[in-house]
Amino acid sequence: MTRPPRVLHVDPGREWRGGQSQLRLLAAGLERRGVEQAVATRGDSRLAREARALGVRVVPLRWEAGLDPRAVLGTAREAPDWEVVHAHGSHALQASLLALGLAGGAVRLVAARRQVFPLRSPSVWRRADVVVAVSRPVRDVLVAGGLEPRRVRVVHDGVDAGELRAQRPGRLRAAAGAADGELLVGTAGALVGAKDHATLLRAAARVLAVRDDVRFVVAGEGPERPALEALARELGVADRVALPGRVEEAALSLGDLDLFVMTSAAEGLGSAALEALAAGVAPVLARAGGLSDVAGAELPSVPPSDPEALAEAVLGLLADPGRRERVAAAARERAELFTAERMTEGTLDAYRAALRTLR
What we know:
- There is one protein chain.
- Helices cover about 40% and strands about 15% of the residues.
- By secondary structure, the protein is of the alpha/beta class.
- The chain folds into two domains: about 5-160 and about 340-355, Rossmann fold; about 160-335, Rossmann fold, CATH 3.40.50.2000.
- The strands form two sheets. Strands 3-2-1-4-5-6-7 form a seven-stranded parallel sheet, with helices on both faces. A six-stranded parallel sheet has the order 10-9-8-11-12-13, with helices on both faces.
- Helix 11 (about 270-280) crosses helix 14 (about 320-335).
């Protein structure tokens, strides 16, 4: 096939996190390549609004539950008109499998896997023609779950480096209450257990016991927020560690940070870390899951769930501005491996592989 395949994306659209942001970047990249595509999702979701803004047709679905029969039927009506259905996540995969079973035909199924946790339903994932793994550790989980290695493609997330370099500073510093002259260490992401922000707070307590010119900010919302606020009070750092909730367009203020830290105990890849790299912020990353793909051998990393090692790494970089600038330069260079263009090309290759595969 010389022309690009026609693609229907399926995503529940009930939230806006890394997966939905990556789907927006992918849709934009496919639009630039003239790929005919549509996004099947909740019609009132942010994902639907972002797709429409790109000029991508939205197939509105009623999708309230994890596996909503109305979403299955809506996908089944639409799917036969496409060559590839790209299911973004486990719920989308289950709905797409049922939809294609109802619709029949020769539509190929590509599934996106972003999580590094063991598969709950390996047989479901084995029914996809190709599974796109967001990192090498995610690929290893899929193969351990019984997928044929030839059906798994590693395609790293991408970032729009040009967009991120056009920083609009001030929002994160304001959210942290950071004064002029204070150093700011922070992160952004959902406040969920796998992100292990508790390790960051415990490391912050060690750093703040040594230095009085540092503030921390943890931008994001999620179910762990009350527990993290309680831990900050228990550690005596609530006045120096801000948990401001969601900060609008936080990615465009990452340049406010003197250090970006990601402490995830389990991470498929880490979109926020990629954004920090592209923004030219020196990072310290936990060696957990796909973050090892992000850090490589060039960037500082520490064992997961080790606040002492994290505090030592943070203190070392804060004490040495020259080294911090060298790490920031290495981060900008490494970000070139994780562009939206590379992600789009890798995904197109996965579509072509699916079309060569008989389910």
